[in-house]
Structures are given as C-alpha cells and as structure tokens.
UniProtKB/TrEMBL annotation:
One MF annotation (Gene Ontology) recorded for this entry: hydroxymethylpyrimidine kinase activity
Species in which this protein is naturally found: Cyanobium usitatum str. Tous
Protein name, as recorded: Bifunctional hydroxymethylpyrimidine kinase/phosphomethylpyrimidine kinase
Signal peptide: none
Chemical reaction(s) catalysed: 4-amino-2-methyl-5-(phosphooxymethyl)pyrimidine + ATP = 4-amino-2-methyl-5-(diphosphooxymethyl)pyrimidine + ADP; 4-amino-5-hydroxymethyl-2-methylpyrimidine + ATP = 4-amino-2-methyl-5-(phosphooxymethyl)pyrimidine + ADP + H(+)
Length: 274
C-alpha cells in the first residue's frame, strides 16, 4: 500500500486541538499519511497559550530536509512560524519544491493569542510567492495586506480588496477565512488568479468550541490536494469537513474545545480525483 503523503510545518499544541496535532489528526481521518516538522512548542490548553518556545531555524531546516529527502510528499502546509529566522528557514527549504504549498500565516488566534513576533510580519512576504493558497483569517489578512477590515465599512468589499492585494504580493490564490466576525460566520472568500472571486458558505454553526478550526481547514485542503483534487474542489471538501467537525465539536476543558476530527471525516466521506 502506498498512501498519499502530506506534510505540516508548524507549532505543537500541548492540548491537541490545534497546530501539528490537529493537522495530523485531519490527515489521518482522510487516509493521508502525515509527517511533520515542528517550529515551536507551546504550553496551551482550551483557555489559551501560556508559553511558546521556538526551535532554532537549523533544527527546523533539518526536520524538513529529513522528510523531503526520503518521503514523496505530495502537498504541504505551513502553520505557526514564530519569528523571522523560522520564516526564512522555511522559505529557503521549500523554494525548490513544485508541489502544492498552503501557507497559513498564523499570527493571532481567534481567541486572541499572539502567535507571531511583530518583527516577523514583513518576513512573511518571503513565503507569499511560494503559496498555491494563502489562508489568512480576517486579522491576518488585514496585517499582511494593509487593507482595513472593519464592520463599520463595507465588510465584504474590504475582504475582497485585501484578497486582491495579497494576490499582488505573490500568492497564486487566497482564501480569507471569515469566521472571526459574526457577520461572516461560515463564509470564506476564495480568489484565484484569472478567475472571479467566490464567497463559499455553509450554514452558521452555533458553538463556542472552535479551537483549531483554522488549522484543520488548512490541513484538510492540503490532504485533499495530496489526494489529487483540484484546488477549488479541495477547498469545498475541506469546508464540508470542518462543518462536520464543528457540528460535533468536543466540549472538553474549561475554554473553547476542539473540533471532533473523526466524526468530521464521517460527514464528508472519502473522495479521490479521477
């Protein structure tokens, strides 16, 4: 048996709901073999992040090299890259790869935890030209694009403008995740080069247990790309997967619980491209 292989590069979540752990759970539930390179170790639970320890850029580079020189990775994603050194190391390690690369510019979690040093925001532009798909939340889209996204303005128009600006900075496609605002809950904006933008929607799900939903969405897209789906098909399937995980979210811990990754898989089913 030779399964499709996907890789995640990012931070470890000690509570298992987000980061590397959520990515690997997602890969496994979609029958994709997952491998990883860890950039940071966080002390984290459903209430938030209390400590972050970054690995050295050399340690991250060595992990990436060890995987890519041995395993035929079909698609990969990046997540938490805390500082300039880790971003630069990742950009250098991935520059020669022609496989689908999803860049999730993890800066601030939906719960408000800061996951990127301020000096590293500009460094992310090294990775944007490598992205087949960039998946910022609303706050990250605003920081990277310089476009103000506020409820007092035309919210949809601001999101669309930010996505266009991010394409101009080098990304081949952008998916701006709208779940951070009640007005856009369940709605994400996909913009690809040479194609009209699309608002992709599912029914809003009333739950506070959304920990790791952004990581899970990116991992699901990556897994589906590894399986051979087109980018648009992968995004649609991934949104269905996250919807299923939110409907069966786990009310564990004293804060925001995580998605139920195994039940989410059952709600989506398995698809392979022809």
């Amino acid at each position: 048996m030779t399964p499709a292989i996907a890789m995640t590069i990012g931070g470890s979540d000690s509570s298992g709901g987000a980061g590397i752990q959520a990515d690997l759970k997602t890969f496994t539930s979609m029958k994709v073999y997952g491998c990883s390179a860890i950039s940071c170790v966080t002390a984290q639970n459903t209430k938030g992040v209390s400590r972050v320890d970054a690995l050295s850029p050399e340690a991250l580079s060595a992990q990436i090299s060890a995987v890519l020189t041995d395993l035929p990775v079909a698609a990969l994603k990046t997540g938490m890259l805390l500082n300039v050194g880790l971003i630069e190391a990742t950009a250098a390690a991935l520059a020669a790869l022609t496989i689908p690369k999803l860049i999730d510019p993890v800066m601030v979690s939906r719960a408000g935890s800061v996951l990127l040093e301020p000096s590293a925001i500009a460094a992310y532009r090294l990775l944007l030209p490598q992205a087949e798909l960039l998946t910022p939340n609303l706050h990250e889209a605003q920081l990277l694009s310089g476009v103000t996204i506020e409820a007092a303005t035309d919210l949809e128009g601001a999101v669309e403008q930010a996505a266009q600006r991010l394409l101009e900075l080098g990304s081949a496609a952008v998916l701006v995740k709208g779940g951070g605002r009640p007005e856009l809950r369940g709605r994400d904006y996909l913009l690809q080069r040479h194609a009209p933008g699309q608002w992709l929607s599912h029914a809003p799900i009333s739950t506070t247990h959304t920990h790791g939903s952004g990581c899970t969405l990116g991992a699901a897209i990556t897994a589906q790309r590894a399986l051979g789906l087109s980018l648009q098909e992968a995004v649609i399937e991934a949104k269905r997967y996250v919807e299923g995980g939110l409907r069966s979210a786990l009310a564990i811990g004293a804060g925001h619980g995580p998605l139920c990754h195994w039940h989410a898989y059952g709600s989506v089913g398995q698809r392979r491209a022809p």
